[in-house]
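Q: A reviewer asked whether we had any structural model of the full assembly, not just the individual parts. We don't, so I'm hoping you can provide one. Inputs are below.
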Amino acid sequence: MIEIIGPLSGPASSSGTASASAKHATLQKQLIERLQQAILTGRLPGGSLLPSSRLLAAEMGVSRNTVVIAYEHLAAVGYVIADKKGTRVSPLSSPTARGEPQASSGVPDVAYAARVDRFAATRTHVANSLPLTPGTPALDRFPLGAWRRSLERSMESALPRALGYGDPAGEPALRDAIAAHLRMARGVRCDGSRVVITEGAQEALNLCVRLFTNPGDIAWIEDPGYRGAKAAFNLGDLTMVPMPVDPEGIAVPSDAWRTHAPKLIYTSPAHQYPTGAVLSVARRLELIAQARRCGAWLIEDDYDGEFRHTGEPIASMQGLVDDAPVLYVGSFSKTMFPALRIGFVVLPRAIAAHTEAALQEMLRGGHRLEQLALAHFIESGEFGRHLGRMRRLYRERQQALRDALSEYFAPAQILGGDCGMHLTLRLPPDIRDRTLVERACATGLNPRALSGFALQQRADTNGLVIGYGSTPADRLAASVRVLAELAGLPADRRSV
Amino acid sequence: MIEIIGPLSGPASSSGTASASAKHATLQKQLIERLQQAILTGRLPGGSLLPSSRLLAAEMGVSRNTVVIAYEHLAAVGYVIADKKGTRVSPLSSPTARGEPQASSGVPDVAYAARVDRFAATRTHVANSLPLTPGTPALDRFPLGAWRRSLERSMESALPRALGYGDPAGEPALRDAIAAHLRMARGVRCDGSRVVITEGAQEALNLCVRLFTNPGDIAWIEDPGYRGAKAAFNLGDLTMVPMPVDPEGIAVPSDAWRTHAPKLIYTSPAHQYPTGAVLSVARRLELIAQARRCGAWLIEDDYDGEFRHTGEPIASMQGLVDDAPVLYVGSFSKTMFPALRIGFVVLPRAIAAHTEAALQEMLRGGHRLEQLALAHFIESGEFGRHLGRMRRLYRERQQALRDALSEYFAPAQILGGDCGMHLTLRLPPDIRDRTLVERACATGLNPRALSGFALQQRADTNGLVIGYGSTPADRLAASVRVLAELAGLPADRRSV
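A: Here is a predicted structure for the entire assembly that you could use as a starting point for your response.
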């Protein structure tokens, strides 16, 4: 037997310090592992008789008890079968046990979900912290001290209780704080019981899909539009119908309600991503009335709604009329920081009872300390003060970006800017946005190609989506100058 | 006009302290809101002509500029239309604007996803911190001090950088730490690049479903089995085929591979939930060989695998042979604490390239501080020491529970206990488990009904699933005595 499984060695530090019981345990573990390996690799084939415990103990130089326990363990988990005739190796069905070579046996034809290939077709670059990245806030201006105090406070007051499972829909304190904030700042009609905390806005979108659609259902999507909404609809195996976007926001052809009656409609009315259009009130009301008529749900992704730069804030679509068929979605990825991953959806009053069981099974809660800290951060006014400071900062940065674009890309057609942290620059047809973005990435700049957000490519989807949230004003001009050079703009189109 | 929109009031604290510009801003905001409300409620119907800015300014007692800006704002967002003939209310299509009563207009026939009703059918009580709750660890023994030091350390070294978006698959440091731990403790064959961090084990299950199945595909599930697996399969609209469980674990009828060829198979081999069966090696190898043959994936949920109480630890199924078609799933909800919500899946080497784009769109990363802190907690050895302490504690508690069950429910048929934090007690047919659990909950105890985990009710699915993780040994006996009393066991069946 020793030629099959090899001799056993004592504990590594065998210099007398290891106790007898530790040595025994090590030998026993070794013996079990060696026997298992020999069985799995076929060196001890199925059906072969193992030596008696007395014989093997003598051969391996261990106590008989060590072998008895090893055999018992192997029998308990099925490697060997012990009966009156002795201990035999189980007839195992592994290809390895039959001596087939491992290398060729890999996973032969991997069958993926159909949706995996739909994703592959739409992939582009991933968000990071380079200049001009859209969607990244000014993290160096985040009030870390105040946030850590809120965290500290929730640790002191809620541990160890808050280590355990909490409410699957999130901490009641946070849901109440969000509801109060949304009522005042965004005109949302809600209370904490209708707010469900999610893993960022993305899981809020997934939740909407899971609650209200079946595979194959029709979902409308803004085109060009937010990639995260496409991802959520893809995951739900929905049939996506692109809806054009004009300067008043999502522009639904009048017959679409009949010819492509939707179950779900994704909108970003406060500041359409990426064109920056603000959805007009007339269209908001029309969407609400038509959605109600055909039993569809509107997802209102209040993207950038907190960072309004011009005029009075426009209240949310959800709060425009009573019981609007609106699922209001938001997150703290921009207003706080991306790694926080706290988002939410405000569910309609009407659905609470019917969906309770499903929500209990779908949601798991968690991250309770962070949620309690955020509740405190909002209630103590820190959140509001932070938003105010960021609004002023982003206004300055937007102006610097506008100035630079007007200078280096004149005559520049700039879209958006009423809210948020990005502007969109239309490009003339002779400058392809994807080519320019590739070159920009190579120099350490990270704008996005407008065409990457479009399902249907058109002349007006050639452009750059340029973030100014995380880039200081004095770096924006230099970055835009580099972009213009990369675009090969002739000197007479630049005013320098 | 003033009779429609009411008079404007100055700022609340009008005692001279408010600056002129603050007063102006307040009046302007008020004017906009009043006009919006009048338009939305139909008091200013679509098409009606508004007074000139000069006239309205005089009537309301504000500067003409205030009215001009208000009209501009209302025009910009679509409430009014301004042309040469003056400013008119837009023809809005809201039911409210048409004067229809709000109360009756609610959401008429809400159409939910079919899966919502499937959930409703299987709902039971939710986890909490009462005695005998299965699945809750000993949170009062969690080393909070060491964990807070790890958190503190990651804040000091990684902020503000770690506020931003990170790798969608999780922090590389944590993925490496988990891979190293799994290789040593569980025999998993992996490196950090194959570990994907998820929002608890539940999202890991959802990820497996999303990557490898289409709606309607066949998925096998242990019966009785883990409810979270059913939830994940439900969300993926899979056709669930229940597989019986016997003392050797999941027991697949030999013809099932042909008659119900699966795409996905859920197993909990280390300690089947809730029966506690340990899957024999023979069956592990058979599952791997058959799954490979028919292109199916095995989900190995290593539930409780870290808390092995008897014999040598059994290595994971994933590591049994090279390139096993196994998706290894785990979480830190039991080994650390539930609210941490960090789980993971070890993906097969073969799929990395094909699924990269889909994973980038499906995952968002986040919780970077917690992930970095956990990486440090594992690497510094704190995690291993904590596991060791908890193993000893749970062994003591399990023995106390066994003793109490033998005393009060004699002759007690107790299942499981090789791993984990629960035992399962079979009940005689005259004691219905759901009835007993309802009574127990009313007295503040929280065992689960075994039948609640079964898709197909049988005589042997009548029992109690009893957690001992969070209940001190000296409270277990008293709790079990209460259970026996509630079960109405005759005095002669108790030894007291």
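A: Points you may want to mention in the reply: Residues 2-89 of chain A form a domain with the Arc Repressor Mutant, subunit A fold (CATH 1.10.10.10). Chain A touches chain B through 118 residues (CB under 8 Å).
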